[in-house]
Queue: 2 jobs
Job 1
Amino acid sequence: MSETTTEPSEEAVRVREMIIDDLSEVFHIGEMVFTADYSQSLYRTWDEYEITTLFNSDNELCLVAEQGDRVLGFALGTTVKKHNSPWKYGYLVWLGVRRDLQQAGVGERLFREMKRRMREQGARMIIVDTSADNLPAIRFFEKHGFNNKQEHVYMTLNLTRKTKKKGAKK
Ligand SMILES: CC(C)(COP(=O)(O)OP(=O)(O)OC[C@H]1O[C@@H](n2cnc3c(N)ncnc32)[C@H](O)[C@@H]1OP(=O)(O)O)[C@@H](O)C(=O)NCCC(=O)NCCS
């Protein structure tokens, strides 16, 4: 699937809440940016349930950036309360900008509005996660003040292969 190249436009970019009519465009932009390669080390994969679940539970934290009637990118978030913590956290689950429009400030516009809304909802900290090799995203988040980078280890167990238990008798 290929994206059409965008001609420079004079129309202003605006960020607004996602509506039901945006779902398919958001889904397709996500398919272009969250490829299998992107999510191979993540436990989450981009699919229609990701959008609809967040859209149903956290509509105010589902945003799109648009120019004219074209969606340029989106941000989908939620808030979480951790066990044993009085704090409410904002969790920015997905942030994606059309490839041909990246590095033009769209992600920043989306993030700023998301941050404002999460703060308004009482969140005291925002969490993001991405793969360790996604340097553009890591640079983006660092630029916006994220720190305290923590590495996680993901492991897989192939259930289709028969394995011998370690130490088991022959
Ligand atoms: C991460 C992402 C949302 C940033 O959106 P964007 O519109 O390109 O970001 P902005 O133009 O607002 O900000 C640009 C900044 O982001 C970082 N950045 C974005 N693309 C980059 C790239 N290709 N290489 C290095 N840094 C990059 C830099 O910090 C840059 O600032 P700088 O030029 O001053 O160094 C976008 O790259 C994207 O959609 N990536 C694929 C999906 C993804 O990884 N999402 C994040 C995890 S959910």
Note: The helical segments are 23-33, 36-39, 48-57, 106-120, 135-143.
Job 2
Amino acid sequence: MHGYFAVDIGGTKVELGVGDEAGRLLATARLETAALGDGEAAVERMARALRELRRTAAPEVEPLAVGIGSPGPLDLERGELGRLANLRGWDGLPIVRLFRTALGLPVYLANDATAAALAEWRWGAGAGTTDMVYVTVSTGVGAGIVSGGRLVEGRDGNAGEIGHVVVDPDGHPCHCGNRGCLETVASGTAIAREAERRRRESPLLTAYAGPLDAARVFEAAQAGDPVAGAVVRRAAETLGWAVGLFANLYNPERVVFGGGVAQQGEALLGPVRRAARRFGMPALVGRLQVVRAALGPETGVRGALAVAMAGPRRAAPDTGPAPGRPS
Ligand SMILES: [Zn+2]
């Protein structure tokens, strides 16, 4: 039977998958990103691992295409990665061409948040809508946008980079080169760092052993700790501001929150909704649903699978072949 290969690239791990035509994952494998080496060698290893995964776990699948979800920024037209925060040896990697050569299949690339949005839209908490925004909150913050039943990707595939909108010009330096980006305030990493900075003001946070993570900070906030409460409130308000912004720009029916920090559920989404009502236009945020993602830890690889299944997503130019576009 026909199926697809999926590749979800992350700073610490790469998830590989083989899926069927209905979008079910039949087999998955995980590789350590750091162990893959620099760009071209890394693609060779990933391609070999995909072939091996199919041979051992899903030999009945005849793959039709490869879908890749990668952190941005990307150059979608050239099929290249940009300067990735945690993958220095992969700068400018022509990943689409390399995978196409290695596997002899059409290869489709998308920003990882866009890929996750596509999966949540097809199979998860965004199903049934024509207008939705997916926001992921984990070590960073990103978003994918579906408007009028289509993905909004922008010229290079980088639309939805809400995590790198500056919300505090005097804030922390961000790995993107700017200062005070939204993700320096509202990501899991930012929540942990800010709580760590103010740890000594709080007997509860001081009593915890080891470094703080976002889950610990939420736990302390739920227990009534004022320092943890303030850190969580600021993060949630900033995310609520982003929801208000998306509401006014795209008028979505639903905003879906995924990523590790969204697992906090109502402890995050309650204050996010309240802030969204404060920052968005009442007519637009009044009927907006803010909900948790449904797909869980497989969202990344299901997103890459959805990208493979979606096939070519951009219209061909009027004249000449599009560079980097799969043939
Ligand atoms: Zn930034």
Note: The chain has eleven helices and twelve strands.
